[in-house]
Amino acid sequence: MVRASIIAALVTASTVFAASAPNCTLTQKCPSETPCCSQYGQCGVGAYCLGGCDPRMSFGLDSCVAAPVCESKTYNFNNLDRVMSNTKYLGDSSKTDWVSDGNPQQYNNNLLLTMAPDSVGTLLASSTYMWYGNVKATFKTSRGQGVVTAFILLSDVKDEIDYEFVGADLAHAQTNYYFQGIPECRLTLTAIDDHGGNISLSDTFNNFHTYEIDWTPDQVTWKVDTQIGRTLKRSDTWNATTNQWMYPQTPARVQLSLWPGGLASNGEGTIEWAGGLVDWNSADIKNNGYYYATFESVTVDCFNATSAPGTNDKTSYTYNNLAGTNDTVVDGKNSTIIKSLIGTGTDPDAGAPSGSSSSAASATAETVPGRSGENPGTDNHAGDNSGSSSQAAASTATASTDASGSTSTGSSNGQFSQGGGSSSSSSSSSKSGAEKLGASQEKVLKGSVFAGIIAVVAMMAL
Ligand SMILES: *[C@@H]1O[C@H](CO)[C@@H](O)[C@H](O)[C@H]1NC(C)=O
Ligand SMILES: *[C@@H]1O[C@H](CO)[C@@H](O)[C@H](O)[C@H]1NC(C)=O
Ligand SMILES: *[C@@H]1O[C@H](CO)[C@@H](O)[C@H](O)[C@H]1NC(C)=O
Ligand SMILES: *[C@@H]1O[C@H](CO)[C@@H](O)[C@H](O)[C@H]1NC(C)=O
Ligand SMILES: *[C@@H]1O[C@H](CO)[C@@H](O)[C@H](O)[C@H]1NC(C)=O
Ligand SMILES: *[C@@H]1O[C@H](CO)[C@@H](O)[C@H](O)[C@H]1NC(C)=O
Protein backbone atom coordinates (compact mmCIF):
# COMPACT_ATOMS: atom_id res chain seq x y z
CA MET A 1 0.00 0.00 0.00
CA VAL A 2 1.14 3.50 -0.60
CA ARG A 3 2.01 6.00 2.01
CA ALA A 4 -1.16 7.66 1.09
CA SER A 5 -1.79 10.42 3.54
CA ILE A 6 -2.28 13.92 2.39
CA ILE A 7 1.31 14.61 3.14
CA ALA A 8 2.44 12.60 0.17
CA ALA A 9 0.76 14.78 -2.38
CA LEU A 10 1.51 17.97 -0.56
CA VAL A 11 5.16 17.16 -0.28
CA THR A 12 5.15 16.48 -3.97
CA ALA A 13 3.43 19.76 -4.63
CA SER A 14 5.76 21.74 -2.47
CA THR A 15 8.95 20.11 -3.63
CA VAL A 16 8.03 20.59 -7.24
CA PHE A 17 7.58 24.29 -6.83
CA ALA A 18 9.77 25.11 -3.92
CA ALA A 19 13.27 24.33 -4.94
CA SER A 20 14.47 27.55 -3.31
CA ALA A 21 13.44 26.82 0.29
CA PRO A 22 15.97 24.77 2.23
CA ASN A 23 14.82 21.22 2.87
CA CYS A 24 14.81 19.73 6.35
CA THR A 25 15.01 16.18 7.62
CA LEU A 26 15.99 14.45 10.85
CA THR A 27 19.63 14.60 9.82
CA GLN A 28 19.54 17.96 8.06
CA LYS A 29 18.01 20.58 10.31
CA CYS A 30 17.01 24.08 9.28
CA PRO A 31 19.60 26.88 9.36
CA SER A 32 19.33 29.65 11.95
CA GLU A 33 18.01 32.26 9.48
CA THR A 34 15.04 30.06 8.55
CA PRO A 35 14.84 27.91 11.66
CA CYS A 36 11.43 26.28 11.34
CA CYS A 37 10.80 23.01 9.50
CA SER A 38 7.27 22.88 8.13
CA GLN A 39 5.00 19.87 7.93
CA TYR A 40 6.15 19.58 4.31
CA GLY A 41 9.87 19.43 5.11
CA GLN A 42 10.99 22.93 4.21
CA CYS A 43 12.54 25.72 6.23
CA GLY A 44 11.11 29.16 6.85
CA VAL A 45 9.81 31.64 9.42
CA GLY A 46 6.35 32.86 10.39
CA ALA A 47 3.71 30.27 9.57
CA TYR A 48 6.49 27.72 9.20
CA CYS A 49 6.93 28.01 12.97
CA LEU A 50 3.22 27.53 13.75
CA GLY A 51 1.08 24.41 13.32
CA GLY A 52 2.98 21.53 11.78
CA CYS A 53 6.44 22.87 12.64
CA ASP A 54 8.56 19.80 13.42
CA PRO A 55 10.85 20.53 16.36
CA ARG A 56 13.10 17.57 15.52
CA MET A 57 14.02 18.98 12.13
CA SER A 58 14.07 22.65 13.09
CA PHE A 59 17.15 24.62 14.09
CA GLY A 60 16.43 24.19 17.79
CA LEU A 61 13.70 22.67 19.93
CA ASP A 62 12.57 26.20 20.68
CA SER A 63 12.39 27.32 17.02
CA CYS A 64 8.79 26.21 16.63
CA VAL A 65 6.19 28.31 18.40
CA ALA A 66 4.39 26.47 21.22
CA ALA A 67 1.16 24.70 20.26
CA PRO A 68 -2.20 25.69 21.82
CA VAL A 69 -3.56 22.96 24.12
CA CYS A 70 -6.75 21.06 23.55
CA GLU A 71 -10.13 22.70 23.83
CA SER A 72 -13.32 20.66 24.04
CA LYS A 73 -15.73 22.14 21.56
CA THR A 74 -18.28 21.42 18.85
CA TYR A 75 -17.67 23.22 15.60
CA ASN A 76 -20.79 23.78 13.53
CA PHE A 77 -19.97 25.41 10.27
CA ASN A 78 -22.87 27.85 10.27
CA ASN A 79 -20.38 30.48 9.24
CA LEU A 80 -16.67 30.63 8.60
CA ASP A 81 -15.98 33.52 10.99
CA ARG A 82 -13.48 31.47 12.96
CA VAL A 83 -11.70 30.06 9.93
CA MET A 84 -8.58 32.04 9.03
CA SER A 85 -6.19 31.72 6.13
CA ASN A 86 -2.71 30.47 6.92
CA THR A 87 -1.45 33.65 5.30
CA LYS A 88 -2.96 35.65 8.18
CA TYR A 89 -3.00 33.38 11.21
CA LEU A 90 -0.42 34.26 13.87
CA GLY A 91 -1.12 31.61 16.48
CA ASP A 92 -3.98 33.07 18.53
CA SER A 93 -6.30 30.10 18.95
CA SER A 94 -8.69 32.14 21.10
CA LYS A 95 -9.78 33.92 17.94
CA THR A 96 -9.41 31.21 15.32
CA ASP A 97 -10.67 27.62 15.36
CA TRP A 98 -9.41 26.52 11.94
CA VAL A 99 -6.47 27.57 9.81
CA SER A 100 -7.17 27.20 6.12
CA ASP A 101 -5.13 26.70 3.01
CA GLY A 102 -7.11 26.68 -0.20
CA ASN A 103 -10.70 27.67 -0.67
CA PRO A 104 -13.19 26.75 2.07
CA GLN A 105 -16.78 27.74 1.34
CA GLN A 106 -19.89 27.98 3.42
CA TYR A 107 -23.04 26.38 2.08
CA ASN A 108 -26.34 25.62 3.82
CA ASN A 109 -24.76 25.77 7.27
CA ASN A 110 -22.08 23.37 6.17
CA LEU A 111 -18.45 23.79 5.30
CA LEU A 112 -17.43 22.86 1.80
CA LEU A 113 -13.85 21.95 1.15
CA THR A 114 -13.41 22.71 -2.53
CA MET A 115 -10.98 21.69 -5.23
CA ALA A 116 -11.19 23.74 -8.40
CA PRO A 117 -9.53 22.65 -11.64
CA ASP A 118 -5.78 22.46 -11.42
CA SER A 119 -5.71 23.40 -7.76
CA VAL A 120 -4.39 21.29 -4.91
CA GLY A 121 -7.67 21.49 -3.03
CA THR A 122 -8.35 22.75 0.47
CA LEU A 123 -6.96 21.93 3.89
CA LEU A 124 -8.32 23.02 7.26
CA ALA A 125 -6.27 22.39 10.39
CA SER A 126 -7.52 22.98 13.92
CA SER A 127 -5.74 25.78 15.76
CA THR A 128 -5.62 23.69 18.93
CA TYR A 129 -3.98 20.31 19.49
CA MET A 130 -5.45 17.13 20.96
CA TRP A 131 -3.22 15.02 23.19
CA TYR A 132 -5.40 11.92 23.08
CA GLY A 133 -9.16 12.38 23.36
CA ASN A 134 -12.13 11.86 21.10
CA VAL A 135 -12.93 13.61 17.85
CA LYS A 136 -15.96 13.08 15.64
CA ALA A 137 -16.65 14.59 12.25
CA THR A 138 -19.91 14.36 10.35
CA PHE A 139 -19.41 14.77 6.63
CA LYS A 140 -20.00 13.62 3.08
CA THR A 141 -16.94 12.87 1.00
CA SER A 142 -16.16 14.08 -2.45
CA ARG A 143 -16.17 11.65 -5.38
CA GLY A 144 -14.39 10.82 -8.58
CA GLN A 145 -11.17 9.06 -9.36
CA GLY A 146 -8.05 10.66 -8.02
CA VAL A 147 -10.06 12.82 -5.60
CA VAL A 148 -9.19 12.19 -1.95
CA THR A 149 -11.12 13.32 1.12
CA ALA A 150 -9.43 13.01 4.50
CA PHE A 151 -10.13 13.49 8.20
CA ILE A 152 -6.98 12.95 10.19
CA LEU A 153 -5.06 13.73 13.35
CA LEU A 154 -1.50 14.80 12.64
CA SER A 155 1.10 15.75 15.24
CA ASP A 156 4.09 18.01 14.69
CA VAL A 157 6.41 14.99 14.91
CA LYS A 158 4.13 13.25 12.40
CA ASP A 159 2.25 10.81 14.52
CA GLU A 160 -0.92 10.32 12.56
CA ILE A 161 -4.37 8.72 12.81
CA ASP A 162 -6.37 8.75 9.59
CA TYR A 163 -9.61 8.33 7.80
CA GLU A 164 -9.10 8.56 4.06
CA PHE A 165 -11.57 8.21 1.23
CA VAL A 166 -10.71 7.74 -2.39
CA GLY A 167 -13.39 9.14 -4.65
CA ALA A 168 -13.36 6.08 -6.88
CA ASP A 169 -14.58 3.93 -3.98
CA LEU A 170 -17.54 5.44 -2.13
CA ALA A 171 -18.18 2.23 -0.21
CA HIS A 172 -15.17 2.26 2.10
CA ALA A 173 -13.46 4.39 4.67
CA GLN A 174 -9.76 3.59 4.80
CA THR A 175 -8.07 3.88 8.17
CA ASN A 176 -4.43 4.18 8.95
CA TYR A 177 -1.96 5.32 11.57
CA TYR A 178 1.69 6.28 11.75
CA PHE A 179 4.25 6.70 14.48
CA GLN A 180 6.46 9.65 13.56
CA GLY A 181 5.54 9.19 9.92
CA ILE A 182 7.28 5.82 9.68
CA PRO A 183 5.34 3.56 7.31
CA GLU A 184 6.83 0.40 8.81
CA CYS A 185 4.81 0.86 11.94
CA ARG A 186 1.95 -0.80 10.16
CA LEU A 187 3.90 -4.03 10.06
CA THR A 188 3.23 -4.41 13.71
CA LEU A 189 -0.45 -4.82 13.06
CA THR A 190 -1.51 -8.32 13.89
CA ALA A 191 -4.55 -10.46 13.30
CA ILE A 192 -6.37 -8.28 15.78
CA ASP A 193 -6.66 -5.87 12.94
CA ASP A 194 -9.05 -8.13 11.15
CA HIS A 195 -10.85 -5.33 9.40
CA GLY A 196 -7.71 -4.74 7.45
CA GLY A 197 -8.17 -1.04 7.80
CA ASN A 198 -11.13 -0.69 5.47
CA ILE A 199 -14.58 -0.06 6.87
CA SER A 200 -17.54 -0.83 4.61
CA LEU A 201 -20.13 1.89 4.27
CA SER A 202 -23.06 3.08 2.29
CA ASP A 203 -22.32 5.72 -0.36
CA THR A 204 -20.04 8.21 1.36
CA PHE A 205 -20.74 10.96 -1.17
CA ASN A 206 -24.52 11.03 -0.81
CA ASN A 207 -24.78 10.18 2.86
CA PHE A 208 -23.53 11.89 5.95
CA HIS A 209 -21.74 9.55 8.31
CA THR A 210 -20.14 10.36 11.63
CA TYR A 211 -16.51 9.29 11.65
CA GLU A 212 -14.96 9.05 15.08
CA ILE A 213 -11.46 8.61 16.41
CA ASP A 214 -11.25 7.59 20.03
CA TRP A 215 -7.64 7.91 21.09
CA THR A 216 -6.28 6.98 24.50
CA PRO A 217 -2.75 6.15 25.64
CA ASP A 218 -3.65 2.49 25.23
CA GLN A 219 -5.73 2.22 22.09
CA VAL A 220 -7.19 3.90 19.06
CA THR A 221 -10.72 3.02 18.02
CA TRP A 222 -12.15 4.07 14.69
CA LYS A 223 -15.96 4.16 14.81
CA VAL A 224 -18.40 5.04 12.07
CA ASP A 225 -21.93 5.94 13.12
CA THR A 226 -21.03 4.59 16.58
CA GLN A 227 -20.08 1.14 15.22
CA ILE A 228 -16.51 0.06 15.87
CA GLY A 229 -14.70 -0.37 12.59
CA ARG A 230 -11.16 -0.93 13.79
CA THR A 231 -9.17 -1.04 16.98
CA LEU A 232 -5.44 -0.56 17.39
CA LYS A 233 -3.89 -1.46 20.73
CA ARG A 234 -0.66 0.15 21.82
CA SER A 235 0.40 -3.21 23.24
CA ASP A 236 0.58 -4.53 19.67
CA THR A 237 2.94 -1.81 18.49
CA TRP A 238 6.14 -2.55 20.42
CA ASN A 239 9.26 -2.31 18.27
CA ALA A 240 11.93 -4.45 19.91
CA THR A 241 14.63 -3.02 17.68
CA THR A 242 14.09 0.58 18.67
CA ASN A 243 12.56 -0.17 22.06
CA GLN A 244 9.61 2.05 21.37
CA TRP A 245 5.87 1.88 21.08
CA MET A 246 5.27 2.72 17.44
CA TYR A 247 2.01 4.24 18.49
CA PRO A 248 0.61 7.77 17.97
CA GLN A 249 1.29 9.55 21.25
CA THR A 250 1.89 13.27 20.74
CA PRO A 251 -0.43 16.31 20.50
CA ALA A 252 -2.07 16.48 17.10
CA ARG A 253 -4.11 18.87 15.05
CA VAL A 254 -7.38 17.81 13.46
CA GLN A 255 -7.07 18.17 9.70
CA LEU A 256 -9.90 18.11 7.18
CA SER A 257 -8.88 18.03 3.57
CA LEU A 258 -9.75 17.51 -0.05
CA TRP A 259 -6.77 16.93 -2.30
CA PRO A 260 -5.80 15.50 -5.65
CA GLY A 261 -4.11 12.14 -5.20
CA GLY A 262 -4.49 11.67 -8.94
CA LEU A 263 -2.09 14.26 -10.28
CA ALA A 264 0.38 13.28 -12.95
CA SER A 265 3.16 14.82 -10.84
CA ASN A 266 2.42 12.48 -7.93
CA GLY A 267 4.07 9.13 -7.48
CA GLU A 268 2.62 6.27 -9.47
CA GLY A 269 1.65 4.44 -6.31
CA THR A 270 -0.31 7.42 -5.06
CA ILE A 271 -2.12 7.85 -8.37
CA GLU A 272 -3.01 4.18 -8.47
CA TRP A 273 -4.20 4.23 -4.89
CA ALA A 274 -6.33 7.28 -5.60
CA GLY A 275 -8.01 5.44 -8.47
CA GLY A 276 -6.38 7.22 -11.38
CA LEU A 277 -5.85 10.74 -12.57
CA VAL A 278 -8.32 13.44 -11.57
CA ASP A 279 -10.84 14.28 -14.28
CA TRP A 280 -10.98 18.06 -14.36
CA ASN A 281 -13.93 17.91 -16.77
CA SER A 282 -16.16 15.81 -14.54
CA ALA A 283 -19.82 16.53 -13.88
CA ASP A 284 -19.01 18.06 -10.49
CA ILE A 285 -16.56 20.44 -12.09
CA LYS A 286 -19.00 21.36 -14.83
CA ASN A 287 -21.92 21.87 -12.47
CA ASN A 288 -20.21 23.56 -9.57
CA GLY A 289 -16.78 24.61 -10.67
CA TYR A 290 -15.05 22.35 -8.18
CA TYR A 291 -14.97 19.04 -6.41
CA TYR A 292 -16.28 19.36 -2.88
CA ALA A 293 -16.61 17.55 0.44
CA THR A 294 -19.36 18.66 2.81
CA PHE A 295 -18.63 18.95 6.54
CA GLU A 296 -21.54 19.40 8.91
CA SER A 297 -19.75 19.42 12.26
CA VAL A 298 -16.66 18.42 14.19
CA THR A 299 -16.65 17.71 17.92
CA VAL A 300 -13.46 17.58 19.97
CA ASP A 301 -13.57 16.08 23.46
CA CYS A 302 -10.23 16.54 25.19
CA PHE A 303 -8.64 13.71 27.13
CA ASN A 304 -8.15 15.79 30.29
CA ALA A 305 -5.64 13.47 31.96
CA THR A 306 -4.71 14.59 35.46
CA SER A 307 -1.04 13.83 34.86
CA ALA A 308 1.00 13.45 31.70
CA PRO A 309 0.62 12.06 29.13
CA GLY A 310 -2.59 13.57 27.88
CA THR A 311 -3.06 16.67 30.01
CA ASN A 312 -4.36 19.98 28.76
CA ASP A 313 -4.50 22.10 31.85
CA LYS A 314 -1.91 24.71 30.96
CA THR A 315 -1.84 26.72 27.73
CA SER A 316 0.59 25.17 25.29
CA TYR A 317 2.56 22.11 24.29
CA THR A 318 6.28 22.09 23.52
CA TYR A 319 8.90 19.33 23.29
CA ASN A 320 11.92 19.06 25.55
CA ASN A 321 13.72 16.31 23.66
CA LEU A 322 14.37 15.31 20.07
CA ALA A 323 12.88 11.89 20.67
CA GLY A 324 9.43 13.37 20.11
CA THR A 325 7.74 10.71 22.25
CA ASN A 326 4.92 11.16 24.75
CA ASP A 327 7.31 11.65 27.64
CA THR A 328 9.03 14.58 25.88
CA VAL A 329 5.88 16.68 25.55
CA VAL A 330 5.60 19.57 28.01
CA ASP A 331 2.18 20.97 28.86
CA GLY A 332 3.32 24.47 29.83
CA LYS A 333 2.74 28.16 29.45
CA ASN A 334 4.91 29.25 26.54
CA SER A 335 3.24 31.76 24.26
CA THR A 336 1.66 30.42 21.08
CA ILE A 337 1.61 33.77 19.27
CA ILE A 338 3.96 35.57 16.92
CA LYS A 339 3.60 39.24 16.06
CA SER A 340 4.07 38.92 12.32
CA LEU A 341 4.84 36.40 9.62
CA ILE A 342 8.54 36.82 10.21
CA GLY A 343 8.32 35.76 13.86
CA THR A 344 9.76 32.49 15.18
CA GLY A 345 9.73 30.60 18.47
CA THR A 346 12.88 32.36 19.62
CA ASP A 347 11.92 35.73 18.13
CA PRO A 348 8.14 35.93 18.40
CA ASP A 349 8.10 39.74 18.23
CA ALA A 350 10.00 40.03 14.97
CA GLY A 351 8.29 42.35 12.55
CA ALA A 352 6.05 43.85 15.20
CA PRO A 353 5.16 47.48 14.54
CA SER A 354 7.17 48.56 17.57
CA GLY A 355 10.14 46.78 16.06
CA SER A 356 11.31 45.50 19.38
CA SER A 357 13.69 42.96 18.05
CA SER A 358 15.57 42.54 14.87
CA SER A 359 14.84 39.34 13.12
CA ALA A 360 17.35 36.88 11.91
CA ALA A 361 15.05 36.23 9.01
CA SER A 362 16.36 37.42 5.72
CA ALA A 363 14.24 39.33 3.29
CA THR A 364 13.87 36.21 1.24
CA ALA A 365 12.80 33.85 4.01
CA GLU A 366 9.72 31.83 3.26
CA THR A 367 6.82 32.68 5.56
CA VAL A 368 3.90 30.40 4.66
CA PRO A 369 4.73 26.77 4.08
CA GLY A 370 3.82 24.06 1.71
CA ARG A 371 0.85 24.33 -0.48
CA SER A 372 0.97 28.07 -0.95
CA GLY A 373 4.14 27.67 -2.91
CA GLU A 374 7.64 28.64 -2.08
CA ASN A 375 8.13 30.36 -5.37
CA PRO A 376 5.11 32.40 -6.35
CA GLY A 377 7.11 34.06 -9.07
CA THR A 378 7.10 30.85 -11.02
CA ASP A 379 3.93 30.64 -12.97
CA ASN A 380 2.88 27.11 -13.63
CA HIS A 381 -0.69 27.96 -14.15
CA ALA A 382 -3.10 27.47 -16.88
CA GLY A 383 -5.95 29.62 -18.02
CA ASP A 384 -8.15 31.10 -15.37
CA ASN A 385 -5.55 31.18 -12.67
CA SER A 386 -3.24 33.60 -14.36
CA GLY A 387 -4.97 36.57 -12.79
CA SER A 388 -4.30 35.26 -9.36
CA SER A 389 -0.69 34.53 -10.02
CA SER A 390 0.06 38.01 -11.21
CA GLN A 391 -1.64 39.35 -8.11
CA ALA A 392 0.47 37.14 -5.96
CA ALA A 393 3.60 38.08 -7.82
CA ALA A 394 2.82 41.74 -7.39
CA SER A 395 2.39 41.24 -3.66
CA THR A 396 5.71 39.56 -3.50
CA ALA A 397 7.42 42.45 -5.16
CA THR A 398 5.86 44.85 -2.70
CA ALA A 399 6.92 42.65 0.11
CA SER A 400 10.49 42.55 -0.93
CA THR A 401 10.75 46.31 -1.13
CA ASP A 402 9.51 46.29 2.45
CA ALA A 403 12.10 43.73 3.30
CA SER A 404 9.30 42.13 5.18
CA GLY A 405 10.46 38.74 4.16
CA SER A 406 7.05 37.69 3.11
CA THR A 407 7.42 36.01 -0.19
CA SER A 408 4.92 33.28 -0.21
CA THR A 409 1.63 34.57 1.01
CA GLY A 410 0.18 34.19 -2.41
CA SER A 411 -2.74 32.23 -3.54
CA SER A 412 -3.09 28.74 -2.37
CA ASN A 413 -6.01 28.06 -4.57
CA GLY A 414 -4.73 27.54 -8.01
CA GLN A 415 -1.21 28.38 -7.14
CA PHE A 416 -0.16 24.98 -8.32
CA SER A 417 -1.53 23.86 -11.57
CA GLN A 418 -0.08 20.58 -12.28
CA GLY A 419 -2.75 18.07 -13.03
CA GLY A 420 -5.08 18.16 -15.91
CA GLY A 421 -4.70 14.50 -16.57
CA SER A 422 -7.69 13.23 -18.38
CA SER A 423 -9.20 9.85 -18.23
CA SER A 424 -12.56 8.27 -18.01
CA SER A 425 -15.19 10.08 -16.09
CA SER A 426 -15.99 9.44 -12.48
CA SER A 427 -19.15 8.13 -11.01
CA SER A 428 -22.12 9.59 -12.76
CA SER A 429 -24.68 7.71 -10.76
CA SER A 430 -26.11 10.56 -8.81
CA LYS A 431 -26.34 14.24 -9.28
CA SER A 432 -28.27 15.05 -6.18
CA GLY A 433 -25.34 16.34 -4.23
CA ALA A 434 -24.32 18.59 -7.04
CA GLU A 435 -27.85 19.79 -7.56
CA LYS A 436 -28.16 20.65 -3.92
CA LEU A 437 -25.13 22.81 -4.19
CA GLY A 438 -26.89 25.10 -6.56
CA ALA A 439 -25.76 27.76 -8.92
CA SER A 440 -24.83 30.24 -6.24
CA GLN A 441 -21.68 28.32 -5.64
CA GLU A 442 -20.29 28.94 -9.07
CA LYS A 443 -18.81 32.21 -8.00
CA VAL A 444 -16.20 30.53 -5.89
CA LEU A 445 -14.11 29.82 -8.92
CA LYS A 446 -13.08 33.39 -8.61
CA GLY A 447 -11.44 32.45 -5.37
CA SER A 448 -8.05 32.55 -6.94
CA VAL A 449 -8.29 36.27 -7.39
CA PHE A 450 -9.51 36.51 -3.84
CA ALA A 451 -6.44 34.65 -2.70
CA GLY A 452 -4.29 37.23 -4.39
CA ILE A 453 -6.07 39.89 -2.42
CA ILE A 454 -5.47 37.96 0.75
CA ALA A 455 -1.81 38.05 -0.08
CA VAL A 456 -1.92 41.82 -0.27
CA VAL A 457 -3.80 42.06 2.99
CA ALA A 458 -1.33 39.77 4.68
CA MET A 459 1.41 41.98 3.40
CA MET A 460 -0.19 45.05 4.85
CA ALA A 461 -0.55 43.35 8.20
CA LEU A 462 3.19 43.17 8.49
C1 LIG B 1 14.68 19.91 -1.74
O1 LIG B 1 14.36 18.59 -2.14
C2 LIG B 1 13.75 18.51 -3.42
C3 LIG B 1 13.31 17.09 -3.66
O2 LIG B 1 14.31 16.19 -3.28
C4 LIG B 1 14.72 19.01 -4.47
O3 LIG B 1 14.12 18.97 -5.74
C5 LIG B 1 15.08 20.45 -4.14
O4 LIG B 1 16.03 20.93 -5.05
C6 LIG B 1 15.64 20.55 -2.74
N1 LIG B 1 15.82 21.95 -2.42
C7 LIG B 1 16.96 22.42 -1.96
C8 LIG B 1 17.02 23.89 -1.72
O5 LIG B 1 17.92 21.70 -1.73
C1 LIG C 1 9.39 27.72 26.85
O1 LIG C 1 9.63 28.86 27.66
C2 LIG C 1 10.76 28.71 28.52
C3 LIG C 1 10.78 29.91 29.43
O2 LIG C 1 10.73 31.10 28.70
C4 LIG C 1 12.01 28.62 27.66
O3 LIG C 1 13.15 28.47 28.48
C5 LIG C 1 11.89 27.41 26.77
O4 LIG C 1 12.99 27.36 25.86
C6 LIG C 1 10.60 27.46 25.95
N1 LIG C 1 10.47 26.16 25.31
C7 LIG C 1 10.28 26.05 24.02
C8 LIG C 1 10.28 24.67 23.47
O5 LIG C 1 10.09 27.01 23.29
C1 LIG D 1 11.17 -0.86 14.05
O1 LIG D 1 11.65 0.44 13.76
C2 LIG D 1 12.54 0.48 12.67
C3 LIG D 1 13.10 1.90 12.58
O2 LIG D 1 12.07 2.83 12.41
C4 LIG D 1 11.82 0.04 11.42
O3 LIG D 1 12.70 0.08 10.32
C5 LIG D 1 11.29 -1.36 11.63
O4 LIG D 1 10.53 -1.74 10.50
C6 LIG D 1 10.41 -1.41 12.85
N1 LIG D 1 10.00 -2.77 13.10
C7 LIG D 1 8.74 -3.12 13.22
C8 LIG D 1 8.46 -4.55 13.48
O5 LIG D 1 7.83 -2.31 13.16
C1 LIG E 1 -8.52 -1.08 1.34
O1 LIG E 1 -9.10 -0.53 0.17
C2 LIG E 1 -8.14 -0.02 -0.74
C3 LIG E 1 -8.90 0.63 -1.88
O2 LIG E 1 -9.87 -0.22 -2.36
C4 LIG E 1 -7.23 -1.13 -1.21
O3 LIG E 1 -6.25 -0.61 -2.08
C5 LIG E 1 -6.56 -1.74 -0.01
O4 LIG E 1 -5.79 -2.85 -0.44
C6 LIG E 1 -7.58 -2.20 1.00
N1 LIG E 1 -6.87 -2.63 2.18
C7 LIG E 1 -7.08 -3.80 2.74
C8 LIG E 1 -6.21 -4.10 3.89
O5 LIG E 1 -7.94 -4.55 2.35
C1 LIG F 1 5.32 7.18 27.02
O1 LIG F 1 6.70 7.06 26.76
C2 LIG F 1 7.40 6.25 27.67
C3 LIG F 1 8.86 6.31 27.29
O2 LIG F 1 9.02 6.00 25.93
C4 LIG F 1 6.86 4.83 27.63
O3 LIG F 1 7.50 4.03 28.57
C5 LIG F 1 5.37 4.88 27.92
O4 LIG F 1 4.85 3.58 27.78
C6 LIG F 1 4.68 5.81 26.99
N1 LIG F 1 3.29 5.91 27.33
C7 LIG F 1 2.37 5.92 26.42
C8 LIG F 1 0.99 6.02 26.93
O5 LIG F 1 2.60 5.87 25.22
C1 LIG G 1 -12.57 17.71 29.40
O1 LIG G 1 -12.85 18.95 29.98
C2 LIG G 1 -13.72 19.76 29.20
C3 LIG G 1 -13.79 21.11 29.86
O2 LIG G 1 -14.05 20.98 31.22
C4 LIG G 1 -15.07 19.07 29.08
O3 LIG G 1 -15.93 19.84 28.27
C5 LIG G 1 -14.85 17.72 28.42
O4 LIG G 1 -16.05 17.01 28.33
C6 LIG G 1 -13.85 16.90 29.20
N1 LIG G 1 -13.55 15.70 28.48
C7 LIG G 1 -13.66 14.49 29.01
C8 LIG G 1 -13.29 13.32 28.13
O5 LIG G 1 -14.02 14.32 30.15
UniProtKB/TrEMBL annotation:
GO terms for biological process: carbohydrate metabolic process; fungal-type cell wall organization. Its EC number is 3.2.-.-. Keywords: Cell wall biogenesis/degradation, Glycoprotein, Glycosidase, Glycosyltransferase, GPI-anchor, Hydrolase, Lipoprotein, Membrane, Signal, Transferase. InterPro entries: Beta-glucanase-like, CHR-like, ConA-like_dom_sf, Glycosyl_Hydrlase_16. The keyword Cell wall biogenesis/degradation applies. GO terms for molecular function: endochitinase activity; glycosyltransferase activity. Residues 62-289 form the GH16 domain. Residues 347-363, 383-416, 423-432 have a biased composition (Low complexity). The active site is at E160 (nucleophile), E164 (proton donor). The keyword Nucleotidyltransferase does not apply. It is found in: Membrane. It is a lipid-anchor; GPI-anchor. Residues 1-18 form the signal peptide. One of its GO terms (cellular component) is fungal-type cell wall. It catalyses: Random endo-hydrolysis of N-acetyl-beta-D-glucosaminide (1->4)-beta-linkages in chitin and chitodextrins. Residues 344-442 are annotated as: Disordered. Belongs to the glycosyl hydrolase 16 family. CRH1 subfamily. Dual chitinase/transglycosylase that plays a role in cell wall architecture. Chitinase and transglycosylase activities are coupled. Required for the polysaccharide cross-linking at the septa and the cell wall. More specifically, transfers chitin to 1,6-beta-glucan in the cell wall. This is Crh-like protein. It comes from Lachnellula cervina. The gene is crf2.
